[in-house]
Amino acid sequence: MEKEIISKIKKLKKEKDVVILAHNYQIPEVQDIADFVGDSLGLSQKAKEAGERIILFCGVHFMAETASILCPDKKVLIPDLQAGCSLSDSLALLQLKEWKKRYPDAVVVTYVNTSAEVKAESDYCVTSSNAVRVVNSIPEDKMILFGPDMFLGSYVSRVTGRKNIRLWAGECHVHAAVKAEDIERARKKHLKARFLIHPECGCVTSCMIDAFDKGEKDSIILSTEGMIREVEKNKEGEYVIATEKGILHRLKKVSPSSKFYPVSDELECKYMKLITLEKVLFSLENEVYEVKVKKEIRDKAIIPIQRMVEIA
Length: 312
Ligand code: 13P
Ligand code: SF4
Prior knowledge:
By secondary structure, the chain is an alpha/beta fold. It has helices spanning 2-15, 28-33, 40-49, 61-70, 86-89, 93-102, 116-120, 131-136, 150-160, 180-189, 204-213, 224-233, 247-254, 277-286, 295-310; strands at residues 18-23, 36-38, 54-58, 75-77, 107-111, 124-126, 144-147, 165-167, 194-197, 219-221, 238-242, 259-262. The longest helix has 16 residues, at 295-310.
């Protein structure tokens, strides 16, 4: 049955001139039929370069929306419209407008995990892999409003040394659940392992103390694609992984002889897991569900998104 679905997907993909992009948290079967698998930044770049008529986005809604803003002439499809993001929901347009009123001269930097409307009210967009570089490119005397992820924000503030950053108190429900105690427990269990930690994790403050103040070399804070690049360097490593568990499939593929231990078995994003092979096939057959952004929002949101893609 699965084989049949896969061969239908491959056939339709060719016939309809489609590129399939999949995020690192997608289920293994979906990752395996994709043309590209990557993090938010890499997938935005792939969308921008795509020559195909249709982009089928296996990820969550804000990712498909970003692709549609970058490629307004293409048809961007998502196999399930319910694939949202709790972090993106934690900063609404009106909340951002109110925040901006309180700091009228500030530069607004928002994570790519936001709606198109929030991006349209932002000066810069960032992903976990370029947030530090983007913030470093903003003149030092400028106040920055950074949202919605407070853990990523505190990481960026620490690495850049900026004191004039105000953080929005938003979080991703999956990553916020990773606590310092989980890291400590794993440290005692896996004595030789290196710790690869996503900056959205709730443990990021204590991990920064370990990495920067105590100089512990075994903890590295990385985006999902940064984790892939890190394990590619050492083909027989041991790693504790602190991010959504979908990434384990790709990590094992790029480094089959390494050992990977998820920091918790519970780190699963229910939104990412809504995308299945059956839904991908349905999406291709019926060319649904199209994600489109209104022109007036797109014309504003494209500016911070272009900056994000350029400062890679
Ligand atoms: P990355 O850009 O690191 O892949 O992160 C996306 C995301 O949604 C993390 O939860
Ligand atoms: Fe959003 Fe968290 Fe899921 Fe990433 S893991 S898509 S931030 S809810």
